[in-house]
Design brief:
The complex is a heterodimer of chains A (about 90) and B (about 525). Chain A is mainly α and about 90 residues long. Chain A has four helices and no strands. Chain A is globular and about 35 Å long. The chains are: A mainly alpha (about 90), B alpha/beta (about 525). The interface between A and B is medium-sized, with 17 and 18 residues. Chain A: Pfam families: PP-binding (PF00550).
Chain lengths: ~90, ~525
């Protein structure tokens, strides 16, 4: 679990909507815990069902479609990896 | 063929009949039956080299990867007993499993030895130590190479014996008796510690063949196993695929988002489902922009697919026929319904396996007529050999018919048969209870709740210490409304006074509703209320 630091809060590399979607899926992350780029999503409570929830919420919110090769465990490993993939999709569309 | 009674004979037969057909595929690649056969021989030789002797247990903690399959057959060829350990199993249980089965050696995924080593009183190796993917030259007998064109021209029946000589076992195999143990399969269930069902070769092969005769997997089938191989439902997909010469595709839970891509890329035709997996698949199919996948058969056991979920599966995969089944590890499989038989007999789990029998007995052991509920008792060659190192528990459940001397399994599950011998499952003994003098099961209340339009999930917690009968529902409806609608469907005593809404039901590692977690929710809330009252 990531240790809270003010720096990571201030410099979160993603927008608030992304954080809101992720937090909704992380039942083991309390509101006080910081979501860092390298937080392990499965340790924070993301299971395969909530991964699929998250995928669909992100696709809705950002109007993108994750291609097959992005639908891997690596993409959904951390907020950082997921945001990187999502950002690339948004640039393409 | 009919003489094959050892589990590894299934692979021997498959490699003879389908040497160049794809046997097993994971995310890193595929093996044909010849390559799988070699990897299994390599595993057997490596295990023998580490001192593994017939009867020794080999604990294998691996996800759904090809090496699991090679180690399964390799362990059996070494005459040893294969003990799968689910990577999702918590440390607490891993410790008790390892202490209980006392393996001669344990294998894990590379880098995961630490998940086993602290609790294992034996050497622990990463599976990479076996070099199962090493170049063919390292195989003791490379002369067994089968030319690729064999796959392009299907061999007629008469030529099948010919390749048999071309694929000799690289080394002498432990002779092995069909009554020796093949597998120890740990189940959780009603006892506090996991207990292992002892599966002898003969019973395992009988069960696999009996299931195969009902499900009819074909040589051109591609079977996607996304459920863990460490559970018998997943494990038997290996045997069923080998019996048919089909292709087994393996994926792990972390690849579930890619399930539709896997279905399309590999032309998957058969998929075993538990409810959580079915639900994910239906949701993924809804966002998929390709046409429907080529699924022709989906099976279900472990926990029931509810009628709304079956309907959703049919909607998403119009070409798939649905086969509900009922099984417990103690005899592997009890019943299988005809494909799409749920349309004519909703909630039936089907007829007994061929060559086996299901009886419904009352508390005094008297057979019950069709329609009357009682304990489900199973008789046949698929009844396993009891629980490992648990003679008392074994004696309770695995009994001998006083008249015929046959072994009979008292399942502890309740249900009834209809006039045509189709079984309906009511619940575990633990799920049966009395309230206001009326006998009922959690399952019937759950079924009634799921019948209410708008209720997507339901679980019932029986009344217990300091706790009333409680319904947990996944629904947009108000709890009050759900209770009112239940009152239209059930007699008053069976209507829970409390209904709590959840986003989804908590699940155990094998996809069943986690009733302990539900009990914890009730307890937590009750304590909270008391604290509020005291304040």
């Amino acid at each position: 679990m990531a240790t809270p630091t003010s720096a990571s809060t201030a410099s979160a590399p993603w927008d608030p909507g992304f954080e809101e979607v992720l937090r909704g899926a992380l039942r083991l992350l309390s509101p006080d815990d910081v979501l860092a780029p390298d937080t392990c999503l499965s340790t924070a409570g993301m299971d395969s069902m909530s991964t699929i929830d998250t995928l669909m919420r992100l696709e809705d919110r950002y109007d993108v479609a994750f291609p097959d090769d992005a639908l891997t465990g690596e993409t959904f490993a951390t907020p950082g990896s997921l945001w990187t993939v999502l950002s690339e999709l948004r640039t393409q569309s | 063929m009919a003489d094959a009674h050892r589990v590894q004979d299934l692979l021997d037969q498959a490699v003879r009949a389908h040497p160049a057909a794809t046997a097993v595929r994971d995310r890193h690649g595929a093996w044909d039956y010849t390559a799988l056969d070699r990897a299994a021989h390599r595993a057997a030789a490596w295990l023998r080299g580490r001192g593994v002797a017939p009867g020794d247990r080999v604990a294998v903690r691996l996800g759904n990867v090809r090496e699991f399959v090679a180690l399964l057959f390799g362990t059996l060829r070494a005459g040893a007993v294969f003990v799968p350990v689910n990577p999702a199993m918590k440390e607490f249980h891993v410790r008790s499993v390892l202490a209980d089965c006392a393996p001669r050696i344990a294998l894990t995924a590379p880098g995961e030895e630490h998940a086993v080593a602290p609790y294992a009183d034996c050497p622990v190796h990463p599976v990479t130590d076996l070099a199962l993917h090493a170049p063919e030259a390292a195989v003791p007998d490379p002369g067994a190479e089968v030319p690729a064109p064999a796959s392009a021209i299907p061999a007629p029946e008469a030529t099948i014996p010919a390749p048999a000589g071309a694929v000799p076992a690289p080394e002498a195999e432990a002779p092995g008796d069909a009554d020796d143990l093949a597998l120890l399969i740990y189940t959780s269930g009603s006892t506090s510690r996991p207990k292992a069902v002892m599966s002898p070769h003969r019973a395992t092969v009988f069960a696999a063949r009996a299931i195969a005769s009902r499900l009819g997997y074909r040589a051109d089938d591609v079977v996607l196993t996304a459920i863990p191989l460490a559970f018998d439902y997943g494990l038997y997909q290996i045997f069923l695929s080998a019996l048919a010469g089909a292709e087994l595709v393996l994926t792990d839970a972390d690849a579930h988002t890619g399930l539709m891509a896997t279905l399309h890329r590999h032309g998957v035709t058969v998929m075993p489902l538990v409810p959580s997996l079915a639900e994910m698949l239906v949701r993924l199919a809804a966002r998929d922009r390709r046409g429907p996948a080529a699924l022709r058969l989906v099976t279900n056991t472990g926990a029931d697919l509810t009628p709304p979920l079956i309907a959703a599966v049919r909607g998403a995969f119009p070409s798939a026929r649905v086969v509900p089944m009922f099984g417990i590890t103690e005899c592997k499989r009890v019943t299988i319904l005809e494909p799409d038989g749920d349309l004519a007999r909703p909630r039936s789990v089907g007829r007994p396996l061929p060559g086996t029998e299901v009886l419904i007995l009352d508390e005094r052991g008297r057979p019950q007529p069709p329609g009357a509920a009682g304990e489900i008792v199973v008789r046949g060659p698929h009844v396993m050999a009891g629980y490992w190192r648990a003679p008392e528990l074994s004696a309770q459940r695995f009994r001998t018919d006083p008249a015929t001397g046959e072994r009979v399994l008292h399942t502890g599950d309740y249900g009834h048969l209809d006039e045509d011998g189709h079984l309906y499952f009511h619940g575990r003994r633990d799920d049966m209870f009395k309230r206001r003098g009326v006998r009922m099961s959690a399952l019937e209340i759950e079924a009634a709740a799921l019948d209410i339009p708008g209720v997507r999930g339901a679980a019932v917690l029986p009344p217990g210490e300091g706790r009333e009968l409680t319904l947990f529902a996944v629904s947009a409806l108000e709890p009050k409304e759900i209770i009112a609608r239940l009152g239209e469907r059930l007699e008053a005593a069976k209507v829970p006074p409390h209904c709590r809404l959840l986003d989804r039901l908590p699940l155990t590692a094998n996809g069943k509703t986690d009733k302990n977690a539900l009990a914890a929710i009730v307890e937590h809330v009750t304590q909270g209320e008391q604290l509020t009252a005291a304040a």
